[in-house]
Amino acid sequence: MSDQVLQAQIDIAAPPERVWALISDLSQMKRWSPQCRAMKALGPVMAGTRTVNLNRRGLMVWPTTCKLTEVVYEKKLAFRVNENNTVWSYELEPTDTGTRVTETRRADDGIKPASNFLVGKFMGGVPSFERELVDGMNQSLSRIKAAAEL
């Protein structure tokens, strides 16, 4: 069972408000994430709001649900994935040239055993899947950077 913190970071030559507008529009998550195909907020983007999501990896497609755990305007957006107990976050920090964005996946309370079993059985094992997640984070951040710097 992995409880490793996965993380990626990028500097974007755009102000925090522009980057925040992209990240906090959850319907656009499919543009950034190579795995997310849909994310729909069931209410305003604020702590406590739930989302329904659709993910895809190759031929595998699966739904998830999340709950926004932290929303701090132009600073942090975090959500807990109910199916595996992980918390994903985007943190924005102003820099001299724009905004530094850090994407993190934490599993402070451990990943649910059923999730680890499924990853092991159908997704090549936890270490391989986690490497793929970090690659996906870097892709997501690069896509957000490209959109923000237009």
TrEMBL record:
Q: Which Gene3D superfamilies match?
A: 3.30.530.20
Looking up InterPro entries in the UniProt record yields: Polyketide_cyclase/dehydratase, START-like_dom_sf
This chain belongs to the protein called SRPBCC family protein
Q: In which organism is this protein found? A: Mycolicibacterium arenosum
